[in-house]
Amino acid sequence: MDRIADYQLIRPLGEGSNGSYHLATTPRRLGIAADQVAVKVLEVAAGDEAFHRLTRELRTFAKVRSAHLVTLYDAGQEAGRCYYAMEYCPLGSLAHPAQEMSREEKVAAVADAARAAHDLHEAGIAHRAIKPSNILLTEEGAKLSDLGLVQLLAPGQTITGLGAVGSVEYLDPAIMRGERASRSTDIWALGVTLHRALTGTSVYGELPDRDPLLAVRRVLSSPPTLDPGLSDAEAEIIRRCFDKDLTARYGTAAELADALDALGSAS
């Protein structure tokens, strides 16, 4: 595929939940300074109803003002395929950075993602797909991306997205048990993301990536285990993200971001 609508696709950027990302030339009609944008093309054909769900989700997200959320430019549908365009972040993601990152830079990136999550939460939205590949890197800091699983927190206004749940590793077990996505479940995901970024390992060991049901069973039956290579301060922050007692877990993602700032300053 070398084109969708009036976007000339330059090269693939990678795979995300429910679709693929492409670097594309910016159509003149967008009226923005950037020469290139990132375009996500959903991998499943979608009718008008699915497209309306997508655009509703994007509009909800775009209304949130945050320096740490990717900027959305456009959404459309062509030949049954939905797509949306957003700012291109050439430095890669926390999962696949364009250059090696220091420990302090990784902590700062997760702190920025936590601030983005807090801004979403204050608007009544849970991201529900926080993980290293959805934390994009820029010269100014990190930005939270991938809207495929965003869910409104307001009762009766749920947006479930257009595909399967993302990586099991980053999901709070409470969601697997049928509870609603919330501030606390995103904070759980931020804790797992920090652990993965700092250690390169999962808190559950190696999960069977080809058998989601088995992976879910393992997560539900095994408490998260922290890598012994973490510092005491790092381990304490991550452990608090996982606390089963929600009153002991960070109350807001902004509180977690502040703790990560303090951790970075002490390094």
Task: Tell me about this structure.
By secondary structure, this protein is α+β, with helices and mostly antiparallel strands. The chain folds into two domains: 3-87, Phosphorylase Kinase, domain 1; 103-266, Orthogonal Bundle (Transferase(Phosphotransferase), domain 1). It is built from seven helices and ten strands. The chain has helices spanning 48-62, 103-122, 173-176, 183-199, 212-221, 232-242, 253-266, and strands spanning 3-4, 7-16, 19-25, 36-42, 72-78, 81-87, 125-126, 135-138, 141-144, 151-152. Strand 5 (72-78) and strand 6 (81-87) form a beta hairpin. The longest helix has 20 residues, at 103-122. Mean pLDDT is 87; it is low at 148-166. InterPro entries: Kinase-like_dom_sf, Prot_kinase_dom. This is Serine/threonine-protein kinase. Residues 7-263 form the Protein kinase domain.
Computed Rg = 18 Å
Q: How would you write the strand order of the largest sheet?
A: 1-2-3-4-6-5
The 3D shape can be described as globular
Give, in order, the helices and strands: EEEEHEEHEEEEHHHHH
Write down the overall mean pLDDT. Answer: 87
- CATH architecture annotation of the largest domain: Orthogonal Bundle
Distance between the termini: 46 Å
Name of the top-level CATH class of the largest domain = Mainly Alpha
Give the total of domains. 2
Major sheet, described briefly? 6 strands, antiparallel
CATH topology of the largest domain, what is it called? Transferase(Phosphotransferase), domain 1
What is the oligomeric state here? single chain
Count of strand segments: 10
Low-confidence stretches: 148-166
Keywords: ATP-binding, Kinase, Nucleotide-binding, Serine/threonine-protein kinase, Transferase
Protein name: Serine/threonine-protein kinase
InterPro entries: Kinase-like_dom_sf, Prot_kinase_dom
Domain Protein kinase: 7-263
